[in-house]
Amino acid sequence: MSSKRRQLHLGLFLFGTGYHPAGWRLPEGKTDGAYDPQFLKEVAQKLEKAKFDFFFLGDRLATSADMQHLFPSQMTRLEPFTMLSYLAAATDKIGLIGTVNTTYAEPYNIARFTASLDHLSRGRASWNVVTGSDTRAALNFSREKHWDNAKRYDYAEEFIEIVSGLWDTWEDDSLPRDKASGMFADGSKVHALNHVGEHFSVAGPLNILRPIQGQLPLITAGTSLRSQMLAAQYSDMVFTGTNVKEVAVKFYKEVKGRLPEYGREASDLKVLPGLVPIVGRTEEEARAKYAELNELVVTDYDLGPLSDKIGIDLRGYSLEDPLPDLSASETALHWAGLARGANGREDITIRDLFYFFTVTVRGHLLVVGSTQQVADIIEEWFRDEAADGFNVCPPYMPGGLDLFLELVVPELQRRGLFRTEYEGSTFREHLGLSRPGNRYDLIAKG
Ligand SMILES: Cc1cc2nc3c(=O)[nH]c(=O)nc-3n(C[C@H](O)[C@H](O)[C@H](O)COP(=O)(O)O)c2cc1C
Description:
Layout: E1 9-13, H1 37-49, E2 54-57, H2 72-75, H3 80-90, E3 95-101, H4 107-120, E4 125-130, H5 149-167, E5 195-196, E6 201-202, E7 218-221, H6 225-234, E8 237-240, H7 245-257, E9 270-280, H8 283-295, H9 304-310, H10 330-343, H11 350-359, E10 365-370, H12 371-383, E11 389-392, H13 399-414, H14 427-430, H15 439-444
Parallel strand pairs: 1-2, 1-11, 2-3, 3-4, 4-7, 7-8, 8-9, 9-10, 9-11
Antiparallel strand pairs: 5-6
Helix pairs in contact: 3-4, 4-5, 5-6, 6-7, 10-11, 12-13
The structure holds flavin mononucleotide.
Flavin mononucleotide (FMN) is lined by residues 58-60, 99, 101, 130-134, 149, 221-224, 227, 239-241, 274, 391.
């Protein structure tokens, strides 16, 4: 284990119109950011200036217009590897993570996309392996049904093994390009994969040289047992989403505790929950922005889903009513506590709880407050081993990101929690990972 002081890892989880469903409706909110090349470039360059570890793009393979009020940023967006190739040319240091849904892809193609991005970015590419949270994707890929969790993860494991194997098929010195002898490639250093497994047969070799990083850092996102096992075996970083510190601490411990089963150390895997920072120059400014955002939510105020979540039926109440006695449900008490925290007062109404529920439905940690307050929460989660860093989801763009970069990042740097300079140039280096040897070379050397 490294003796270096543990430091935060920070990345942007891009939501083009912001994480808050009404972020785009603010007067200053950018509505078409996810499609604006100049804007995307500026965002990536700002992140790099702030020494962020990565720029991350999620992906889903199905959509419908009815997502507009809850998930406007995920309803339509650009294909991740295409966008990241463009950003690679506009940046020098920042890691670039694209999501790959293994359920609907072929490993040979994904090995090509990822290796290509790694070469173009000079060693900054990474992939986030998901097995697909949107079941409708099946209908876009000539299937009748989304597979169950077990089949998706069986498939993903074999998929990862193949991609990782393909990256190694050309040894680092396999291309001497020797003008004098005429030897362009050294065939003895080029290997077939000859994978024949339950789901795939892939001969190889890959038609791209070994990536700059050798093996790209692998990210996973999910909390099911199979997802945790995948993370423990293969991932360098796992994305999660919870707004409850105790849940995060439990997950952190559990998933890291699985690493020794695979011959790895707990520190080999970084755990990054999502963080939605609504930060202001003062606490009042932040609370006012939270209120402004919530008032712009487009909703029919159906209290059903909230009632189901907290286990207390609120359907008969008026939105302006104070919260009723919630003591019959631990979950309800907990959610009410979180909503009070976000509002900064005790006397919240059903409307306040409804808004809190609506804007945090994807589960990431929402923090509303001043620079110090937001930095305190980050520090607390980091020190208490709930997180090794955060996947930052600005509530609106670009202002929500700008305030975080201008106010919170310098504060974290002042506290010695976050880098003030990049120490390396590749994404592996940002994560403190060395470049792995090539399996074929290692076999040859015994
Ligand atoms: C931060 C984060 C980002 C995610 N991004 C995606 C994504 O881009 N596409 C997707 O299909 N699923 C995404 N997921 C969903 C997970 O891959 C996973 O399917 C979901 O969390 C269900 O968990 P499970 O697979 O462990 O059952 C994401 C999850 C988290 C926590």
